[in-house]
Specification:
The complex is a heterodimer of chains A (168) and B (251).
Chain A: H1 2-23, H2 26-43, H3 53-74, H4 76-83, H5 92-96, H6 100-107, H7 110-121, H8 126-133, H9 137-160, H10 164-167
Chain B: H1 8-15, H2 21-32, H3 35-56, H4 69-96, H5 98-108, H6 118-129, E1 137-138, H7 144-152, E2 168-177, E3 180-188, E4 194-200, E5 212-216, E6 219-226, E7 229-236, H8 240-247
Antiparallel strand pairs in B: 1-2, 2-3, 3-4, 4-7, 5-6, 6-7
Helix pairs in contact in B: 4-5, 5-6
Classes of the chains: A mainly alpha (168), B alpha+beta (251).
């Protein structure tokens, strides 16, 4: 049990990062991580991950995020929480770490952000990502291709028209 | 084994280290003679590096103690104990058996009933009329009842003083309902008439009640909200002593 907890503790920073990249808000991100850990720990003995614990936790978190996102369409308060910032001005945190790639990343749709984080940053396999997103591996690859092009275009755009949008 | 020339997918897989060693070497060789594709691949690799660097900082956030697995385990255990506690009340009530046991079940299963404070009426029937469920607490001296109630409901309004009508608090009982933990304080007068004071949280839907009253069979419930709780006074409708009491209620 405590060995498993140690393993979790090592993954928690990664979960938090994934959650921030989805919610773009660090306090709702931690709420999301907490809800995911509760889900994981309440059922872990029954359906514990067969393979990578990290991929399993990412899957739980992504599903929790989608559920919350769906609920957010129904509840105005949650709407503000999760999507209110989507089209609004960037937060202070985002301004501080204003690097063009990150700015471009932040403008991608949620699923492309999740995909790039899992593949490029976390280095999860296509198969693991396919399971997390619940789509075939081929779909992961074609979406990845679109996400990379989008990131490329946005990054180039950021370089040619420097941080006006960010600094206003 | 991939086929040559590589597809765009193969190039992505190359960037993401998802190819086996042989395929990887094939693409290395092919890229050496295809500068345009090589530039594209380098750009993707570069973006991935930048993204890793930019998001690296997000791993250095100060730890949030709320997210510690041991603490979350504890919280989950407490929650399931609370569920067990509600189940225990249910079992006790059903264990008493027969028809009244069935009613006890109904009582604990009251779910967002359309009529306000149905649970207060059911608690009265169960305890005052059928004598099921023994009291958790019996009054010895004056003022004890308030202290007992304060242990569980710190911000609840004071117990009503019904002495002028001849009623004194005699016993208390804690109950578990779907709306949360409830307490019922029983008052009695000299001739054994009983009225109950019932308090519980407003429930998960935060249902606060405007002051009102309704009758249900031979009982009447007067209900209201205040200080974050819902209250009810339940009394039989047919007794003159109680009617007199109701007129003098300081509610």
């Amino acid at each position: 049990m405590s060995e498993f907890d140690e393993q979790l503790r090592e993954i928690i920073p990664r979960l938090r990062r994934f959650a921030v990249s989805l919610t773009r808000n660090s306090s709702s991100a931690d709420d999301l991580v907490q809800a995911s850990l509760e889900r994981a720990l309440s059922g872990w003995s029954a359906k514990r991950a067969e393979g990578d614990v990290r991929a399993w936790l990412f899957a739980i978190l992504y599903r929790q995020f989608l559920d919350a996102h769906r609920r957010s369409r129904r509840y105005a308060r949650m709407l503000e929480f999760f999507t209110g910032r989507d089209d609004a001005e960037p937060s202070v945190e985002r301004t501080v770490i204003a690097q063009s790639t990150l700015q471009a990343f932040d403008r991608l749709p949620t699923e492309q952000r999740a995909l790039l984080l899992m593949v490029s940053v976390e280095g999860l396999s296509y198969k693991e990502v396919a399971e997390i997103l619940d789509v075939p591996t081929g779909t992961v690859m074609s979406r990845l291709s679109r996400a990379r092009q989008a990131l490329r275009q946005l990054s180039d755009g950021e370089i040619s028209s420097p941080s006006l949008r960010i600094l206003k | 084994m991939i086929s040559m020339p590589p597809s765009e997918r193969d190039l992505h897989a190359y960037v993401d280290h998802q190819l086996n060693e042989a395929d990887r070497r094939l693409i290395d060789t092919w890229l050496a003679t295809h500068p345009e594709a090589a530039a594209q691949v380098r750009a993707w690799q570069h973006d991935a590096q930048l993204l890793r660097a930019a998001l690296g900082g997000a791993l250095q956030q100060p730890a949030n103690p709320e997210l510690d697995p041991a603490l979350i385990r504890q919280r989950l255990k407490r929650q399931s104990r609370r569920h067990l506690a509600s189940a225990a009340v249910l079992l006790i009530a059903v264990g008493i058996g027969g028809f009244s046991g069935w009613q006890a079940r109904e009582m604990t299963l009251v779910r967002s009933s359309p009529l306000p404070m149905t649970d207060a009426l059911q608690a009265y029937r169960l305890i005052a009329q059928q004598g099921m469920l023994p009291a958790d607490y019996k009054v010895d001296t004056d003022g004890d009842m308030q202290r007992w109630l304060d242990r569980y409901f710190t911000q609840a309004s004071r117990l009503p003083d019904l002495k002028s009508a001849g009623f004194e608090p005699v016993s208390g009982r804690l109950l578990s309902t779907d709306e949360g933990p409830a307490a019922m304080v029983m008052y009695e007068d000299r001739s054994g008439h009983k009225v109950s004071f019932y308090v519980r949280p407003p429930g998960p839907k935060n249902t606060f009640l405007p002051r009102g009253s309704r009758s249900d069979g031979d009982l009447q419930a007067d209900y209201w909200s205040g200080g974050g709780y819902n209250y009810a006074m339940v009394s039989p409708t047919d007794s003159p002593a109680v009617q007199q009491l109701r007129q003098s209620l300081p509610l």
